[in-house]
Design goal:
This protein has 372 residues and is of the alpha/beta class. It contains 13 helices and 14 strands.
Length: 372
């Protein structure tokens, strides 16, 4: 495999240095919490090799409210990123073909590239509110197509794909014996929508992926999972995990189990915060901001506005001024293989005050980067 560092990681806040960023609008998660916030005693945790599939109580909790899923359908992994890596490296090789809805989370693109898998992109457009056309997907299918990769709720736009469209993809994929990866990492951030069942409920051809990192403020414990009802495929995924890491950290799994058992306690204040912050950014886009336009997000904590065509902006200068002069950071479009006239703005991580000022700084940096 030929690995290549991804811009979204090279230029991440943790790599740039948190001390250089006062207004962090680049994060795609809620604000991180401290261990003391968990109110959890780990004194009696036995620090042994854990269950290879993941702690059974944790797997049960993950599918607790699901109708057609059991703990046997869950593989707990050290992060959703690892789960995605396992899916790609298990299902794909250099003779296979993959269809990816783009923009997408970088790992869903770069790992297949490292395998030298052939990729066809179905590009989502601003003009179509980042919804996809099912015919584009059908037309992209080849005899070697093994996997269709989508993200919903979508990163980086915050759009939720129409349920009937996803179900149509699943039905079509079953006919063609193609797997469907649905990256559902933002599902718990449904502050203005209902929490829908995992799409892995729908078919054994579907693999759902999720984690705790985005919605619960605990990316440091590195816990995610994949869900699939195909026994043979889950055996293969487990084999991959055992060769990579054997099992997860039992400490991380204990924390994850505690969080999911008490998920409403954590999610209720989180949803209140992001609802308030969403109102702030929506007001800024619609009433105060003249430079940008967006497709309004319906879930998650990110949006993907773009600079209006009538404004000529020196884009490198804009990002440089925003970071170096105003200590404000956003995710540039190239993180997602898009033009830098787009930017991902995260509204779940900053405080209300930080978001207010960070948005003002974006306006100021755009004004100072206008090309006369």
């Amino acid at each position: 495999m030929q690995y290549k560092r991804m811009p979204i990681e090279v230029e991440s806040p943790e790599e740039m240095g948190y001390a250089t960023i006062k207004y962090n609008l680049a994060e795609s998660s809620v604000r991180d919490i401290y261990f003391k916030d968990l109110k959890l005693n780990l004194d009696d945790v036995f620090i042994c090799y854990g269950e290879h599939r993941g702690k059974i109580e944790l797997r049960n909790e993950i599918v607790k409210d699901e109708i057609n899923l059991t703990s046997d359908d869950v593989l707990v992994c050290p992060s959703a990123a690892t789960a995605l890596f396992i899916v790609s490296t298990t299902l794909l090789n250099d003779n296979d073909h993959l269809i990816v809805l783009r923009p997408n989370y970088a790992t869903n693109i770069e790992t297949p590239r490292a395998i030298n898998c052939e990729i066809s992109f179905v590009d989502l457009s601003f003009e179509n509110n980042f919804q996809f056309d099912i015919e584009q997907i059908k037309n992209a299918v080849k005899s070697t197509t093994k996997l269709i990769s989508i993200t919903s709720p979508h990163n980086p736009t915050g759009v939720v794909f129409k349920d009937e469209l996803i179900k149509e993809i699943i039905s079509f994929a079953e006919e063609k014996n193609i797997h469907v990866l649905v990256d559902e990492t933002y599902r718990y951030l449904n502050f203005q929508t209902d929490l829908v069942p995992y799409y892995a409920n729908q078919s054994s051809n579907v693999i759902s992926v999720c984690s705790l990192s985005k919605a619960f403020g605990v990316p440091g414990i590195r816990i995610g999972w994949l869900i699939n009802k195909n026994e043979k495929l889950m055996h293969d995924f487990l084999a991959a995990k055992e060769q990579i890491i054997i099992c997860n950290s039992v400490i991380d799994e204990e924390i994850a189990h505690h969080i999911l058992k008490n998920k409403n306690t954590f999610l209720e204040p989180t949803h209140q915060l992001i609802s308030t912050n969403f109102s702030i950014i929506k007001n800024w886009i619609e009433n105060e901001q003249t430079f940008l336009e967006w497709t309004e997000p319906t879930c998650g904590v990110v949006c993907f506005p773009r600079i209006k065509n009538e404004f000529k902006i020196d884009l490198p200068k804009f990002y440089k001024i925003l970071y170096e002069k105003y200590a404000t950071f956003v995710g540039a479009g190239h993180w997602f293989e898009q033009d830098d006239c787009f930017m991902r703005i995260g509204f779940g991580y900053p405080t209300n005050e930080e978001l207010h000022q960070g948005l003002k700084n974006i306006t100021l940096a755009l004004q100072e980067s206008l090309i006369a």
